[in-house]
Design goal:
212 residues; 6 helices; Four Helix Bundle (Hemerythrin (Met), subunit A); mainly alpha
Length: 212
């Protein structure tokens, strides 16, 4: 009898076991998943914003060439812009090495973008049109342009040799420009006709945008 009474007392006074909330563990997991999803969402938004800004910057850089409306006119515009950067460098003094470095960086980008466009759009079109020799010669010239830029980057910007190199390099680039604008590209432009020039203009803008 006492045993039964004691058992009854124990059942009455024993603390109730904490009841597990239904779905407790999944709820914590759900919270964690939400946090991870939020982080990925923020990262994706950041990447999208960065991509949009980069595309906008590229569009601005390529805008003058696009506005020219014709591949040959765009090339002439880019040639003048490059020569203006050369002249800006030549106008600096030896006590402005930082300014020379900035201008050289801009020149390198301008010439690199321009060369990429010509090598991937204009020169192939020139070969297909039938002037393989000039296309190969102009492409060969670009190798020396890259070599000169490499040498200028590795010269002290306050050295007199730097300006001497820029002067020689400018003369070489201008000779290349004159050959393209006066002798090689006008016959190609005339031979392609309206449709062919429209296609080449679109291709040139596409390649230029990649490096803008």
């Amino acid at each position: 009898m006492a045993t039964k009474a004691q058992d009854s007392l124990n059942k009455t006074t024993a603390p109730a076991k904490p009841r597990r909330k239904p779905g407790g563990s999944p709820r914590r997991s759900q919270t964690g998943s939400t946090g991870i999803a939020t982080m990925f969402g923020v990262a994706a938004a950041g990447l999208a914003a960065g991509f949009a800004l980069n595309m906008g910057r590229k569009a601005i850089v390529q805008a003058p060439s696009v506005a020219a409306g014709d591949w040959l006119e765009a090339i002439k515009l880019e040639h003048r812009a490059a020569l203006a950067l050369f002249d800006a460098i030549l106008a600096t003094d030896e006590d402005e090495p930082a300014k020379r470095t900035v201008l050289l960086t801009q020149l390198k980008h301008a010439l690199g973008k321009h060369a990429f466009m010509e090598e991937n759009a204009v020169y192939p079109a020139l070969r297909v049109w039938g002037d393989r020799a000039d296309a190969d010669k102009l492409n060969h010239d670009h190798g020396y342009v890259k070599q000169a830029l490499y040498e200028l980057e590795n010269l002290d910007k306050d050295s007199p040799f730097f300006i001497e190199k820029v002067t020689t390099f400018r003369a070489e680039v201008e000779a290349h420009i004159r050959e393209e604008e006066d002798a090689i590209f006008p016959p190609l432009h005339a031979g392609l006709g309206e449709e062919g020039n429209a296609k080449l203009t679109a291709a040139a803008n596409k390649e230029g945008f990649k490096m803008a």
